[in-house]
Specification:
Layout lengths: L1 H8 L10 H22 L6 E6 L5 H11 L16 E9 L6 E10 L21 E8 L6 H18 L4 H16 L35 E6 L4 H8 L3 H18 L2 E4 L8 H13 L16 E2 L6 H4 L15 H4 L20 H14 L8 H8 L7 H7 L10 H18 L5 H23 L7
Parallel strand pairs: 1-3, 1-4, 4-5, 5-6
Antiparallel strand pairs: 2-3, 6-7
Length: 458
């Protein structure tokens, strides 16, 4: 039928003899039709995901997991690139029914230092702004820095968009598209209410704090390492009201920017697959039927358009000792250290010449000592010749008859041998006499000790 329809389009009878020129025109029409059909099924413009966040917030690990879910091959093979100022990945977008490859979403990961935002012109340009999704990643294991990090990276994106000098009309269209998406969200768990006619398009007005900072592009906020809430309880004494206070502050931020919120854990594989589905849904407008989930404090999911101020106020009922109006930094404070690193002063080494002059002045002021003989100096300087406290105590112990005991005699004998070794045998006559007497006393003491052995007669 397709063949006959194409021939009828060309004004040809299927039963008539075709010429070579007519056959070429027929196949050209068929190929053009197939190419046009394929182009309609594929996205006209490649979508882009820009990932922002502080150092060690879990950006690269999260994107690697999303690439694994989509069965995308990493750029670096088994060892994906990391630690660069601007990393690149891609996520394969497949049709859920046929598993056909629809597109490849380019993923750019900016390093966690704000100074590297100078590389944003290579990623976020005027013509690609309408096809870019921004993902801001924060570390839930350090909740005291979450709000500051969110405001810092959101300000980076806002300033970069201003630097693009987009015409007001074009920028207003992007903002209206974001508002329309937020207002047209339908909760899958709520029953659908039939309208008066198919042409009616009823939308609820926005709240006072909703989309007050409209950047004109989809934003997804991801809190990584949600499994560390148990450690925050044990190590820092956090309670349920602290986690509720953190959640309400983050949700208020998301409401200002119209962003979606995810609590994910790569360690326990929580909400990672759900994040992948929602990302594809926002970028390519594919069906998504998952409802919001706020029951589990470590697996929260709030799509863009679901939340409002009334739903956030439900958390206030569980905050008995904390006011939601308190500044974030007054409630969620960093842990105190015993001695902050900033208070430790740097130790400066003293100059050599100043040190030597100080020692010289000290030697001049100190009293002079008398010089000792070379032999006495040699004995005094020798560590072996210095008697130990035990030896000194032994030499002062006498026997019951007033004479030196056996241990005293032996100690004197060995000390004399040590003195002989130190002086090298060059002593005076009195020293030789004392050594001879010590030797005789030692021999007599040995004989007396042998005579006291059991079995010998005294």
């Amino acid at each position: 039928r397709l063949f006959q329809r194409k021939m009828a389009t060309l004004g040809m009878d299927p039963d008539t003899q075709k010429t070579d020129d007519q056959e070429e025109d027929l196949w050209s029409v068929i190929l053009n039709d197939v190419a046009a059909s394929s182009a309609r099924s594929r996205p006209q413009v490649t979508k882009t995901l820009l990932v922002l966040g502080d150092v060690n917030s879990g950006k690269s690990t999260l994107i690697d997991r999303l690439c694994q879910i989509s069965k995308s091959h990493p750029i670096g093979g088994k060892f994906p690139l990391s630690g660069c100022s601007l990393e690149y990945r891609f996520i394969d977008v497949q049709d859920e029914e046929t598993d056909d490859l629809l597109d490849r979403m380019g993923v750019w990961i900016l390093d966690g230092v704000v100074w590297h935002s100078q590389l944003l012109p290579f990623v976020l340009r005027r013509e690609s702004l309408a096809h870019t999704t921004v993902m801001i990643v924060v570390d839930l294991s350090q909740p005291w820095g979450i709000l500051e990090s969110l405001e810092r990276w959101a300000e980076v994106v806002r300033k970069h968009i201003q630097s693009l000098h987009i015409p007001d009309r074009e920028l207003r269209e992007l903002e209206e598209k974001t508002v329309k998406q937020f207002q047209s969200y339908v909760d899958p768990e709520e029953p659908t209410v039939p309208t008066a006619s198919e042409g009616d398009n009823v939308t609820l007005p926005l709240g006072e704090t909703t989309l007050t900072c409209n950047l004109g592009m989809p934003i997804i906020l991801v809190c990584c390492k949600s499994d560390t809430v148990v450690q925050l309880e044990k190590q820092h004494g956090y309670k349920d009201e602290h986690f509720d206070f953190i959640q309400q502050a983050i949700r208020k931020f998301c409401l200002h920017y119209g962003a979606a919120l995810f609590y994910v854990s790569m360690k326990e594989d929580k909400n990672v697959s759900l994040l992948h589905k929602y990302l594809i849904h926002r970028a390519y407008n594919l069906p998504f039927k998952e409802a919001a989930w706020v029951v589990d404090r470590d697996a929260i999911f709030i799509p863009s358009g679901w939340d409002n101020e009334k739903k956030i106020s439900i958390l206030y009922d569980h905050m008995k000792h904390i006011s939601p109006d308190e500044p974030y930094e007054n409630i969620i404070m960093p842990p105190k250290t015993s001695q902050p690193e900033s208070e430790v002063g740097a130790l400066e080494a003293e100059d050599d010449q100043v040190f030597l002059m100080t020692q010289q002045a000290h030697m001049v002021r100190s009293p002079k000592t008398t010089a000792a003989t070379p032999a006495a100096a040699a004995v005094a300087k020798s560590p072996v010749a210095r008697p130990s406290p035990t030896a000194a105590k032994t030499t002062t112990t006498d026997g019951p008859d007033g004479k030196p005991s056996g241990e005293t005699v032996l100690a004197n004998f060995f000390n004399s041998l040590l003195s002989k070794k130190q002086t090298g045998g060059k002593g005076t006559g009195s020293m030789r006499g004392s050594r001879s007497e010590a030797r005789n006393e030692a021999a007599a003491e040995l004989d007396r000790m042998q005579s006291k052995k059991p079995g010998t007669k005294s």
